[in-house]
Amino acid sequence: MNRVTLGCTGLSINPLVFGTLPLGPLQAAFSPDQGGSLIRYALERGVNLLDTAELYQTYPHIRSALAGYTGEVFIASKTHANTADAARLHVERALRELGRERLDIVHLHGARVADPFVDRPEVIEELLRMKDEGKIAHVGLSSHFVGAIRKSVQHPEIEVIHPLLNRTGMGIIDGTQLEMADAIAACAVAGKGVYAMKALAGGNLISSARESLRYVLGVSGVHGIALGMLSEDEINGNLALFQKDEADEELWSGLEGKRRKLAIMQAFCKGCGACVPACTNNALKMVDGKAHVDDAECILCGYCGAACPEFMIRVV
Questions:
Q1: What is the distance between the terminal CA atoms of the chain, rounded to a whole angstrom?
Q2: 3-state class of 54 per DSSP?
Q3: Taking residues 115-124, what's their average pLDDT?
Q4: Residue 198 pLDDT more than 80?
Q5: Helix/strand/coil (H, E, C) string of 70-133?
């Protein structure tokens, strides 16, 4: 099984990182046993970095997967806290719910924070304090901003970055995919570990998944990609693609041609309405201050996902 070293962290990882968000109540709502079984299937086939977050509510799924497991596994979580006290609470809850003494990576979850070094310095300081206490091995930054990723080069305390990158640039707030790729390359040169997110643009690029994944894997400085996976077929197909650049045509035709649906993460919809005029098929409307989709009218074009400033509309 091919491994790569995640920057200067010393962590040797499979480039296929298991993104656990889709397993939880925000998307597929798998039970901890269901989700845990799928994670365990991936672990037993060589995946060894699990990506989660305070917001995802997937700690029970991970704990279920790890019950009795003796192989090597790393866990990366994230805190969206805007205060030091809240960040500590998030990390301590993760440790408690996962049954672990230390998290391998904790990111400042600043997806929508343009400059976390100015806006949330107390959170970074608290994460570093918990690193000194032995509760965190490496501090990271998760962001949709080119500027934030680029600025992290100047901050050696940030050892891992988790940037948004896909071949269309969908979801990048302040630039293009080429500009993000340049920022990622600079981070890698500075010794930071890099594993990308949203390579399939929240599901909007599923119909061209192979092309989209190969694009991100080919970007200089990218050590891995976090992918949400909801079936053993997805795990098998992605492992073959990531490890050997092999793609069984029958399997991938099924994965890329699978009927999808639009999912609006209602818990985080702020009711701005930006998605409604972006819909070319009049499939969206505002109901009680939240965006709702008419599945019968939706053609899965993905335009609404590109218009959502919170990146909370997915094709699943």
A1: 29
A2: coil
A3: 97
A4: yes
A5: CCCCEEEEEECCCCHHHHHHHHHHHHHHHCCCCEEEEEEECCCCCCHHHHCHHHHHHHHHHHHC
Residue 230 has pLDDT above 80, yes or no: yes
Residue 181, classed as helix, strand or coil, is helix
**Parallel, antiparallel or unpaired: strands 262-264 and 224-228:** unpaired
| Calpha distance 307→313 (Å, rounded) | 9
Return the DSSP state at 28: T
- ∠ CA 252-240-4 to the nearest 5 degrees? 135
Other beta carbons within 10 Å of 272: 14
Long-range (24+ apart) CB contacts under 8 A made by 248-256 are 252/209, 252/210, 255/206, 255/209, 256/206, 256/207, 256/208, 256/209, 256/210
Joined tokens for residue 71:
């192989």
- For every residue of 216-264, DSSP letters joined together read HHTSTT--EEEEE--SHHHHHHHHHHHHH----HHHHHHHHHS---EEE
Q: What are the structural domains, with CATH classification, of the chain?
A: 4-257 (3.20.20.100), 262-315 (3.30.70.20)
> Strands 284-287, 290-293: parallel, antiparallel or unpaired by DSSP?
antiparallel
| Model confidence band, residue 123 (pLDDT cutoffs 50, 70, 90) | very high
Asked whether the predicted pLDDT for residue 298 surpasses 90, the reply is no
Is the pLDDT at 300 greater than 70? The verdict is: no
Q: 30 in helix, strand or coil?
A: coil
Amino acid identity of 292? H
Task: Return the pLDDT at 180.
Answer: 98
Q: Tell me the per-residue pLDDT of 145-155, one tens digit each, with 9 for 90 and over.
A: 999 999 999 99
Whether the CB-CB separation of 21 and 28 falls below 8 Å is answered with no
DSSP assignment, residue 164? B
CA 270-272-277 angle, to 5 degrees, is 135
Strand partners, 251: none
